[in-house]
Fold this sequence. Notes:
Elements: H1 6-11, E1 13-16, H2 18-31, E2 44-50, E3 55-60, E4 64-68, E5 73-86, E6 89-100, E7 103-106, E8 109-111, E9 119-123, E10 129-133, H3 146-165
Antiparallel strand pairs: 1-2, 2-3, 3-5, 4-5, 5-6, 6-7, 6-8, 8-9, 9-10
Amino acid sequence: MSLITDEIKAKAEYYSGDEICQVKSKELLREIGMPNGLLPLRDIEECGYVRETGFVWLKQKKSITHKFEKIGKYTSYGTEVTAYVEQHKIKKLTGVKSKELLIWVTIGDIYIDDPASGKVTFQTPAGLSRTFPISAFQIAEEVKDGKEAEAKEAKKVNAAVEVKDA
């Protein structure tokens, strides 16, 4: 049964469609000070964020399993991922499991105790936890500031001028 009701959607910043949800999920992770690669979801149908409570949800077409290459860990994301977020914390997480040895373990909380440490901790509802480098969950993003856009535009203009001169 889905935790997302029409009442919750009415209070939320709500988006539908993979492209906008990909952008919004990464923006949210940046906003709360978490690595932008923690939620490598695909084909997201809808996402939402209730700022007053910190409740977040993402729905994707089908479950996926992702391997975080830098640490060699597999993580499974269900069709519906929900959580409560605050600065440097993702709490009461649902829909996410990590493979430890031969079993899938539910992840309940993800947090960064000390941002300067460069470590992120994943905790199960039973209280067991593992800590990894934040860099293992960080993905490179295109910088879209004005200077880079101007530089790209200048390169295009220069290329066009060179073609005309030849």
